[in-house]
Amino acid sequence: MADENLRPDESPRNNANTDDSVFAECTEDSIQNLVSDMQSHFKTMSQTILNRIDDMGTRIDQLEFMLNDLISEVEATEAKKEQIQTQNMTLNKESELEVQKKGDEVLGI
Fold first, then answer.
1. Tell me: the pLDDT tens digits for 22-57?
2. CA separation for the pair 74, 94 (Å, rounded)
3. Strand runs (DSSP E) across the chain, as ranges?
4. How many domains in the chain?
5. Do 11 and 3 form a contact (C-beta atoms < 8 A)?
6. More exposed terminus of the chain, fewer Cβ within 10 Å: N or C?
7. Are 12 and 3 spatial neighbours (Cβ–Cβ below 8 Å)?
8. What are phi and psi of 16, to 5 degrees?
9. Domain residue limits at 99
10. In angstroms, rounded to a whole number, what is the distance separating the alpha carbons of residues 99 and 29?
11. Confidence label for 75 from pLDDT (cuts 50, 70 and 90)
């Protein structure tokens, strides 16, 4: 008898359909919001990762530049050392020859 007060389009079955459609709309909106939030979060995280990769690339380039400078300095230092060693060897040979000549002169050879 409670159904007598309902209009024909408000049968318990129609009310259930209305509730289901409201629930479906709420669920769809919630899912859309969740997906939108996830996309926004993913985009932010992706940009953060890309920025960090760019920063790392810049740091690597700086380190490579500094390393090349150090290598150049070491090579220049090594070249100077070799030049000094060559000069010292030449001077030592010249000194030995002079000592030998003076020794020969003293001995009358």
1. 767 778 888 999 999 999 999 999 999 999 999 999
2. 30
3. none
4. 1
5. yes
6. N
7. yes
8. -65, -40
9. 2-107
10. 103
11. very high
